[in-house]
């Protein structure tokens, strides 16, 4: 009996010890996971702070340099260079987009070979010099030449930014990050209108007009930003210089687990041709064209529309800023919710409808307040759609060659949207621009149609992957984000 009692007690003791060790292992495992999660968050936060503020600043400079034509025209350039004759202003605005479109793909393909830091430093320094030279032009033809050079040098910039961001983050993180730098730049560029007004007060200094000083000051600042780019821009994850080796491995591992393209694939003609053979990519490009059209119209014509509503030069420039800041806030909120929900299409629909409502209100409302509210709405809808369409595409592709080609193709179609946005708002339709308004609304309906087709295609492919085991994008287990 004593032996039996001792054996039973031993079994209980052993069992108790085993349970204690198991519990200890669970606690230790949870602790390790917590440490890993904390380390991952700290690493991504470090990437965020190194990348996003700088990208936001650089892209805001791009937007200001590209879209200050409307402000300069309002400040007297239209009279000095006879831009009000015929369609000269529209021509000077849209010629920018010809090289911008044609050079998108080649500039994005060389990005991988020379590195983001070197390429973007060259681009930014180059267009800063062109912007500076624009302040000294004497004829509208000289202005056109500067705009062509500006388009050529800016062509590789935005697709490079979206490409770089997509190589650092998982698919569920991309839209918030793109929206962060995109909308930060939109907000900063809104204050660019106020800055431009302050600069115009230098009229007469050095024998130059106020609009000339806009180009000169902003060009000099752009050249300074080229230096910041060379010193601080993070390159691709595998080439970065600011993370530790362990942090770099973590970033690459996260991307590899998410979509399997952390390691760059070789860029070949056959691969590029294969990528361009997918009709869905062209649908995304057309969607971005439609979303960019009202965005460019807003940046070029908002000061002019406000002037047509009876506001003075200073009032038009100052009132241009609040809609842009509002657009940045709204777009970031939409992007954050979209990332949390893991959905893209429904939020593009919402922002497109916001865009349509704003365009019609601006075109047809009678009161100044109502038309001004319309500018708020279509500014928010257009800028939000642009970042959302880019993210929708970036989420649903695998492979860095495909990512590079798609970024270039989509942004080049955005350039086509820029041409349309600056030409359908014709001088003879001033101040309400009704034909241009309806052309832009029609583009939104085209985008919604393409969005429905694309989303239905993705949903069908996801279903085939589940029911028939079809491998999507060459990666087992991959699913499209809808």
From TrEMBL:
Domain of life: Eukaryota
Regions crossing the membrane: 51-69, 89-111, 118-136, 148-166, 178-199, 211-233, 279-297, 317-338, 345-366, 372-392, 404-425, 437-459
Record bears the keyword Heme: no
Transmembrane helix recorded as keyword: yes
Main location, first listed in the record: membrane
Pfam families registered for this protein in UniProt: MFS_1
Major facilitator superfamily (MFS) profile domain segment(s): 51-460
UniProt keyword terms in alphabetical order: Membrane, Transmembrane, Transmembrane helix, Transport
Membrane topology designation: Multi-pass membrane protein
Species whose genome carries this gene: Armillaria solidipes
Name of this chain's protein: MFS general substrate transporter
